[in-house]
Amino acid sequence: MSSRQNPPPSRASQGHEHAPTNPSGLRQSYNASSYASLGEAASRRDSPPLSPTSPPLNVHDDAVPSLALAGPSTPRRGAPTHATEFTALLSGELDFREHVHDGPCNHGTFSPRPTSPTASLHADSHAQSDSESDSFIPSMDGMLSGLSSNSHKGWKKQWTSRMKSKKMSTSSVLAERHGIKDSGLMYLSYYLPVLVWAREYSWSYFKGDFVAALTVAGMYVPMALSLADSLAHVPPINGLYSFVLNPLVYALLGSCPAMIVGPEAAGSLLVGTVIKSTVDRGNGDDDDAVLHAQLCGIVAGMAGAMVFVAGVARLGFMDSVLSRPFLRGFISAIGVVIAVDQLIPELGLSRLAEANGVGHGSSVEKLRFIFGNLDHVHALTFGVACTSFVVIMVCREIKRRLQPRYPGVAYVPDRFIVVVLSVVMAYWFEWEKAGVAVLGKVEAASGHLFTFQWPFKLSNMTHIRDATSTSFLIALLGFFESSVAAKSLNGNTAFAGIQLSPNRELVALGAANLVGACFMSLPAFGGYGRSKVNRSTGGKTPMSSIILSILTLICILFLLPYLYYLPKPVLSSLISVVAWSLIEECPHDISFFLRIRAWQELGLMMVILLSTIFFSLSFGMAIGVGLSFLQVIRHSTRPRIQILGRIPGTNRFENAESNPDRLEFIEGCLIVKIPEPLTFANTGELKTRLRRLELYGTSLAHPALPRLRREDSNHNIIFDIHGVTSLDGSGTQVLEEIVKDYRERGVRIFFSRIPAPDSDVWRLMERSGIIELAGGRDHFVDDVHEALKMTEVQEIGEPGRA
Fold first, then answer.
1. What's the pLDDT at 783?
2. How does the UniProt record describe the way this protein sits in the membrane (predicted)?
3. Burial letters for 724-737: b for 16+ Cβ neighbours within 10 Å, e otherwise?
4. Residue 749 forms beta bridges with which residues?
5. Are 353 and 323 in contact, with CB atoms under 8 Å apart?
6. How do residues 101-130 score in pLDDT, each as one tens digit?
7. Which residue from 451, 474, 577, 562 is spatially nearest to 525, judged by alpha carbons?
8. Cβ distance 301 to 513 under 8 Å?
9. CA dihedral 175, 177, 179, 184 (to 10 degrees)
10. How does the average pLDDT of the chain come out, rounded?
11. Residue 464 class from Cβ within 10 Å (0-12 exposed, 13-18 middle, 19+ buried)?
12. Which of 630, 787, 650, 764 lies closest to 718, judged by CA?
C-alpha cells in the first residue's frame, strides 16, 4: 500500500476507464457499476437487445429521446420540448412508418447500440432478443395483411395481390400511404414501356421523329445491304429485314426511347464465320442462298433466345463480365479482319480469290494473296471503291468539325447520296459491262418476302450445335454495345415514366431478335452511332424506330429494283468505313495502358489481336473469352484476408501490410480481417493464407522462408467478420474446420463485429457448431477492442498466468 494520498476520482474514472470525459450523447455507454442494474432495467422495459451480445439500453426516459425508426416520431408525454441534437427534422412529414404500439420504441433496426456487456449477460439478452423478434414479425405480417385486405376489396383484387411479388406488395403499401392508386396497369406499364409513351405522345414529337427516321434510313439502310452481302454472306434483303422487324419490337418493349437497333459489323461478320465453317464441313455450298438464310435465322434466334433468357433470369450485370481490354482487342481485331476482307472486292479480285479458295482463309493468307496478285487488280473497280471511301471519310470529318457550330449538318445523309450517285453513274456509264460487279436483283432466297421459318426445328439441331458458341458471343457483344449506347443516351429522355433497366433491355433485345429470326434477319442490337444520329436529328421517342421500320418496308416493297446497278465496290467501301471506326479507338487505349503500365491488359489485347489475324476469328474469340474468364475466376477465388494492427494511442485498427511502420501489434494476438463473403469460390486457399499469416505476419512473404513469428504470438486469434455479409455451405464448412483446428491446438478464437442474430450468416454459424467450438456466445463481441479485453481477462484467469 502506498502512503501517497490518492487523487480524487475524475469524471471519467467514476465510470469505466474507457468512458469519454465529455460524452457527446450520440452513442450511449455504460460503466461497470451499472452492470447490476441492467437486468432490472430489462425487466422494466420492452426493449430487446440488438445482438446476441448486447443488453437492453439503460437510459433514463428523460435523458435521451428515442432514435428508433420503428416507433412514432411524436414527442412523448413528459419529454422535454426544446430542440436537441436528437430532435427529428420534418418528423411528421417524412414519417412513413407503421407504428406497432403507442409510446417510446427503441427496439428498431437503427436504435442506439450500446457496447457489448460482460459474458454473464450474453445468454439472457440473446434469449430475450429471439423471443421479442419472434413476436414482432407476426405483428408486421398481420399489419401488412390487414392493409392488403382493406385496400383490395373483391376476390379479383385479392387474387391479383396474391400474384404480386414481394417488391410489388411493399410498393402497394407505400402507394396507399401516399394516396397513389395501386393498379395492375402501373406495373404492366413498367414492363411494357409502350403503354407509357403511347399515352403521352403528341404531334409535337412527330416532326423530329420523322426527320430522324428518314436520316437514319438514308444512312444505314445501304449499310444493312453491305453487311448482309459482304460480311454475313446472306442475301442482301435479310439485312433489310433487321431494320423492319427488330426496331418495331424494340419500340414496344425497350426502355431507352432514343436507341435504334439494327445489324452490326461484328455480329454480321460472326454470322459469316458460321456460314463459312458450315460450308467447310461439307454441309452446304457457297452458292446455296437458302441455306445461308436459314443459318442466319438460326444464329439470330440462338442469340435472341440467350439474351431473352438472361433478361428473364435478371442477368443484366453480364455487360461487366468481359473486360475492357478484351472488348477493345476483339473489336479491333474484327476491324482488321473486316478491312482485309473488303480489300479483295475493292481491288476486283473476288473471282480470282474464289478460284484459289482464299475466301475462307485467315487474314494473313488473304494479305499474302493480295500482295501476290497486285498485277491482276481491276483499275475501275479500285477507283470506284477508293473514291467512295475518300468521299465518305471526308464528309465524316467535315461533319464532325462543323456539327458543334452548325448542328444541321447532321441531317446530311452523305452515305445515301454516295449510293444514289453511284447507282446513277453505274447505269449511265454501263460499269457492269466494264467489269465492275453490281448488286443485281435483290430478292429473298425463298422467292417470297417475309417467309416465316421457325429457327428451332429438330431438323436444324446440327446447325444449332455448331452455332451455339458464336451465337453466345454475338449475344454478349451485342448486349454490351447496346448497354453502352443506352447508358449514354438515357439522359434527357422525353418520358419520365420510362426508366432504364438492363434486365428489361435484355428482354426487349431478345424478343426483337427472336421475332427477326423467324424471318431470317441478321442479328440486330443497339448501336451508339446510329442512335446518336437519331437523337441529334430530332428523334426523342420510340416512334422514330417505328417510322424507320415503315420506311425500310417501303424500300423493300418498291425501291429494290432501283438498286440493281448499285456497285459492290461502293458497298465494300461503306464497310471499310465501319472497319476504320472500329480500329481508330485502339491507339488511344494502347497509349493509356502504356502510360499506366498495365502490361496484363496490353498482353491480353495483343494475344487476341494476333491470334485473330494469324489464325481465325473463332480462335481469337475462344482465346479471349477463355483468358477473360480465367481472370474473373482468379480474381474471385483469391482470399483477401488482412492482418490488422492498432494505431498507437487509439482503438482503431488498420491493415498492417499497407502501413507496417506506424502500427503496433498486440502480443500474443493475431487479428485477422475477412473483408468479403465466404463462398466456395474464395475459401479454397483460405487455410493456406491464414497459415502464412501465422508464420510470417503477412501474406506477401514467400513460403520458402522459415517461420518468422513465434508460436505464442498466435495464442489468441480474433476474426473481424464485418465484411462476411453472406456465407454458403462450402464456406461454412471451411470456417468450421479452421475453428476446430485452432481449438485442438489450444488457440482461443474470438469473433468481432458479428452479424445480426436474425441473419443467414449467424444461423449458419449456429447450426454448424462454430459458435460452440469457438467457446460459446461469450466469444462473439461487437468490436476488436472488446475482443482484446476479453483475451486479457481470460489470460488472467488461466493457471500460471495470474
1. 86
2. Multi-pass membrane protein
3. beebeeebbebbbe
4. 717
5. no
6. 444 444 443 334 444 444 433 444 444 444
7. 474
8. yes
9. 20
10. 77
11. middle
12. 787
State the alpha helices, DSSP H only, in 442-598.
461-489, 502-517, 528-536, 543-554, 568-583, 586-595
d(CA 193, CA 186): 11
Intra-chain end-to-end CA distance of the chain, in Å: 20
C-alpha gyration radius of the chain: 35
Q: How far apart are CA 237 and CA 563, in angstroms?
A: 11
What lies within 8 Å, CB to CB, of 448 at 6+ separation is: none
Judge whether residue 696 has pLDDT over 70.
Answer: yes
Q: What is the pLDDT at residue 611? A: 87
For residue 644, give the nearest of 614, 617, 665 by alpha carbon: 665
Residue 780, all three cell numbers: 462473439
DSSP classification of residue 432: T
d(CA 366, CA 278): 20
Q: Which DSSP category does 646 fall into?
A: E
More confident residue, 637 or 553: 553
For residues 396 and 413, is the Cβ–Cβ distance under 8 A? no
Which three-class secondary structure string do you get for 503-534? HHHHHHHHHHHHHHHCCCCCCEEECHHHHHHH
Q: Are strands 653-655 and 669-673 parallel, antiparallel or unpaired?
A: unpaired
Q: Which of 19-28, 95-104, 183-192, 390-399 has the highest mean pLDDT?
A: 390-399
Segment 571-580 mean pLDDT:
88
Asked whether the beta carbons of 403 and 365 are under 8 A apart, the reply is no
- Model confidence at 521, pLDDT cuts 50, 70, 90, reads very high
Global pTM?
Answer: 0.64
The single residue listed with the C-alpha cell 392508386 is: 181
Query: What is the secondary structure of 534-547 as a DSSP string?
Result: HHHTT--STHHHHH
Q: What is the mean pLDDT of residues 52-76?
A: 41
Produce one character per residue of 606-626: b if its CB has 16 or more CB atoms within 10 Å, e if not: ebbbebbbeebbbebbebbbe
**Residue 528 in this model has a pLDDT that exceeds 90:** no
Higher pLDDT, residue 450 or 659: 450
Residue identified by cell 398481420 is 142
Please give the Cα distance from 574 to 483 (Å, whole number): 25
pLDDT at 41: 41
163-177, 469-483, 552-566, 656-670: least confidently modelled range: 163-177
pLDDT tens per residue, range 353-369: 888 878 777 888 889 99
User: Where on the phi/psi map is residue 672: left (φ > 0), alpha (ψ -120 to 50), or beta?
Assistant: beta
Q: How far apart are CA 251 and CA 609, in angstroms?
A: 36
3-class DSSP assignment, residue 364: helix
Collapsing DSSP states into helix, strand and coil, what is residue 297?
helix
Residue 463: CA count within 13 A, CB half-sphere: 28
Put residue 769 in one of left, alpha, beta given phi > 0 → left and psi -120 to 50 → alpha: left
Question: What is the spatial distance between Cα 672 and Cα 687, in angstroms, rounded to a whole number?
Answer: 12
| pLDDT value, residue 21 | 46
Spatial distance between the Cα atoms of 510 and 305, rounded to a whole number of angstroms: 6
**What is the b/e burial string over 486-514, where b = at least 16 CB atoms within 10 angstroms of the residue's CB?**
beebbeebbbeebebbbbbbbbbbbbbbb
pLDDT of 212 above 80: yes
Identify the pLDDT of residue 245. Answer: 94
Mean pLDDT value of segment 478-498: 73
Checking if the pLDDT of 56 tops 80, the result is no
* Nearest alpha-carbon partner for 718 in 672, 663, 755: 672
